[in-house]
Structures are given as structure tokens and as C-alpha cells.
Amino acid sequence: MMTDLNRSAVTTTQIDTAVTCSFKTLDPLRLTAVRERERARYTVNRPQSKALAERAAVNLMFGVPLHWMSDWSTPFPLHVDKASGAQLRDVDGHVYIDFCLGDTGAMFGHSPAPVARALAAQAERGITTMLPGEDAVWVAEELARRFGLPKWQFALSASDANRFAIRWARALTGRNQVLIFNGCYHGTVDDVFVDIVNGQPRTRDSLLGQVVDITRTTRSVEFNDLAALEAVLADGQVACLLAEPAMTNIGMVLPDPGFWEAAQTLCKRYGTLLLIDETHTISSGLGGYTRAHGLRPDLLVLGKPVGGGVPCAAYGFSAEAAARAEAAKRQAPAGHSGIGTTLTANLLTMAAMRANLAEVMTESAYAHMFGLAERLAAGLRGIISRHHLAWCVTQIGARTEFQFSLEPPRNGSEAAGILDPALEHDIHLYLLNRGLIITPFHNMMLVCPETSAADVDRLVAAIDEFVAETVAG
Ligand SMILES: Cc1ncc(COP(=O)(O)O)c(C=O)c1O
């Protein structure tokens, strides 16, 4: 049973830097040799994945069902046969310890047994009806208990939940501007693809088919910059600040001590709603980073792992925000709100969410995950110090990352500046060839309730081996 919501992760957010005087770098020639060897090794050992990739090239655009799936470090996509607990098996029969866990979608393990059982049972009793059942009521009660927000709505993805929450924020404040932190990611929400380039806001140029000038209604400031935050809030035009409480998508960036206390005060002062996106930072504990660190958001988004990997998301409202949102809907002309999709909160996803919250996302699961994340972080720090690397380790509860800088980045620009996609790919492929998978973007690693200490030690040993093979000198 879940007893103490606040205890979970208060002590698990840490930054550590290597304490050494002269640092070593990785040798480009050694890296090239390792890369070529590992690509050949991947190819030769995966004839079934290769054959499927060739078949897929005919009828799947980019050879994959979602074009991102070709962004991994592998010469051709790894095709999955089965995923269970902390493990994944490919179609060639190789078994991997999975520290990517579907980039958080499977943060509580692949196919958790209670969720699989609930899905099978519910599939016999109706999948979607556009009407609620008892599970929806139970889930909202449980989310209110965990997050301290009394009112909830649902969506099918965190992207949708963010999109809808922004819409509610604009509707209930009557303001049109949204504020984000530079370098953030909140899903495919057009409103947030604004970067600061040479000090100026600019719509991200990689967006496809976007014809609106997003900078007209989205403002962006650097994380941890309270003066800039106040400057953009001061005209009273910003409906909401949409933020991860700690950035996780450009490499991890933690808030400075006192940052959120001051940022929340500023939001209140200028009438801007705080919309906290806990999709990734739910790694902090049962009530997310919000509960672990005493944040007081007006709106809060949950996604990815909340249904054990089944597509669903939820967003919560404070009592005041909910009352204003309900009033806005009542006062609006009859017709479509622009919020919601037909299959939202269907019976199947609500059954999955209930089983997951009740039996999988438990306090004891988090305790296990925190212990392993600490072990992983300690192992990584050992590698950094043994090899004299100017790298650092950042942690948000069960989420751990090593970054290519001595000091952890303080904002999105700094974090972007230390990304090294080529080196990241080299590391990822090296690990994959040794039966270990980490997130394909930067160096983020998750542990789940089924991950073991031996799994973590294997990962640390393989990263150590990579560094030993490629370090200069
Ligand atoms: C913080 C955050 N919010 C929202 C999303 C969007 O999630 P989805 O792709 O499931 O819609 C992501 C995805 O990575 C995320 O990291």
C-alpha cells in the first residue's frame, strides 16, 4: 500500500561532477575503429532484423511505422519479438536488458502482469463506448490523492494532454500567450516549438508542414533565469508557463535551489497558470517531482507510463483552475471545444491505468528503482573518475544520465551545447551489441521494478569497457 507520498524521492535528485585535475578525452581514431567494428558486428548478427527491414522498406515509409524509429544508432532497425519486465528479445533471439524502456512508456517494466491481466479481462467486457465506467472514477480519485489536484481529464497521449491543457489555460485566463523554457520538449505540441537563437525567439526550423508563426503566441526563456521569466510575465499576457519541473529532453537540467519557489511566486503575481508536465519526471516518485518537491501547479500532465505502456494520459486541475475552466465552457457558445478525441478515456485504457496505479506504480516499486538508480549513478561516477573524464552524472529519481561536461548544464542552451549525437550513437551501438539498450537520445537510462543489481552492474561494466577502449593516451 502507498502510505507516504512525500517521502519517495526528496533525496534522490542529485548532481555529481568528476573531481579531477587533468581530464582525458576520447580518441577520434579509436572511436572510428570501434564504430566500424560495431556496425559490422550488429549487421552480421541480425539476419532476421535485416530481412524484416528490407521487407519493411517496401510498404513502410522510411522502413518503419513511425519515422523516429529509424533514428536509433543501428545500421537498420532492431525488430522486437517480445518485451517483458526489464528485458527485450529481438527477432534474431538476442536478449537485451532494457534501460530505455520505451523512452519511459514502459518505465514500470514491459507488460506488467497486473496490467496484462486487466487488459485481457476488460477486452472481454468492452473496449470503447464513449461512456465512463467505474474505473474512471477510481483513477481520478487515486490521481487526486497522489498529486493533490482535485479534478482530472484524460487524453490518449501526453502530447494531447499538453495540447488540451494549454487550450484550457488560454480559455480560462482569456490570454493568448504561452511560455516555455528554451530546449524543452512536451510532445508534438506545435505551440512549444520555439527556440532562442542568437537571443531571439524562432520557430524550430525542423518542423514539417508548420505554416503559422508560432513566436506570435509562444514566448521562450532559459531555465533557471528568474529575471528573464519575470520580464516575459510582466505584461500579464501569458496564459500558462508549461514546464517540466526538471528538463529531461535536451539532456537533463535540474532547477537551481529555490528556482521553483521563486518561479511560482512570479506566476502567481502576474496571473499566469503553472502547467507542470510530469511525463518524464514521474521518475521522482508516486506524486512526481511536484509532490516530492512541494510544487503547487494549477495544471499537471501525466502520460506515457501511467497506463503501463497502453496509450493514455491524464491532466489535473487545481480547484480554482477547474472552476474557471468549467465556467469558460459553460459561457462558450454551444459546439465543439477543440478538446478531446473519440477514444479518450475508453474502457480499456482506464482499466489499464487502474491496474497500473493500484498494483505497479507502487511505493515499493519506486524504492527498488531509486536504489538501483543510485547504484548506476555511483558506477558511472566511478568510471568518470577512474578515466579522468570531464563528464558528470545527473539523476531524477529512477532516471539517470551521464553528460559530456564537467559541470551539469543549467539551461537548455548549455545542455544543447554539450550534446554529441555521434558519440552518443557510438556508445549506444556498443552497448546494444553487448545486450544493453539505453535511450537513443542523449544518454538517459531508466530502471524498472524488474531490473536487478546485476543488470545495472553489467551496464556499468560495458560503459567502462567502451571508455577504456576509446579514451586517448
Ligand atoms: C516531458 C514530455 N512531455 C510530453 C511528451 C509527449 O509524450 P507522447 O509522445 O507520448 O505524446 C514527452 C515525450 O517524450 C515528454 O518527454
Description:
The chain is globular, with a radius of gyration of 22 Å. The protein is built from 14 helices and 17 strands. It has helices at 28-44, 47-59, 113-123, 134-147, 158-173, 226-233, 259-269, 288-292, 319-331, 347-360, 363-386, 412-417, 421-432, 453-470; strands at 13-17, 80-84, 87-90, 95-98, 151-155, 177-181, 194-197, 200-203, 218-221, 238-243, 273-277, 299-302, 313-317, 392-396, 399-403, 436-437, 444-446. α1 crosses α13 (421-432) and α11 packs parallel to α14 (453-470). A hairpin with a 2-residue loop joins β7 (194-197) and β8 (200-203). It is an alpha/beta fold and 473 residues long. Residues 157-159, 162, 185-187, 244, 249, 277, 279-280, 303-304 line the site of pyridoxal-5'-phosphate.
In whole angstroms, the N-to-C terminal distance is 53 Å
What characterizes the major β-sheet? Answer: 7 strands, mixed
Let me know the average pLDDT. Answer: 95
Count of beta strands: 17
Runs in which pLDDT lies below 50 for 5 or more consecutive residues are 1-20
Strand order in the largest sheet: 5-13-12-11-10-6-9
Beta fraction = 15-25%
Total DSSP helices: 14
Ligands bound here?
pyridoxal-5'-phosphate
Shape: globular
Secondary structural class: alpha/beta
Question: From the alpha-carbon coordinates, what is the Rg to the nearest angstrom?
Answer: 22 Å
Helix content: 25-40%
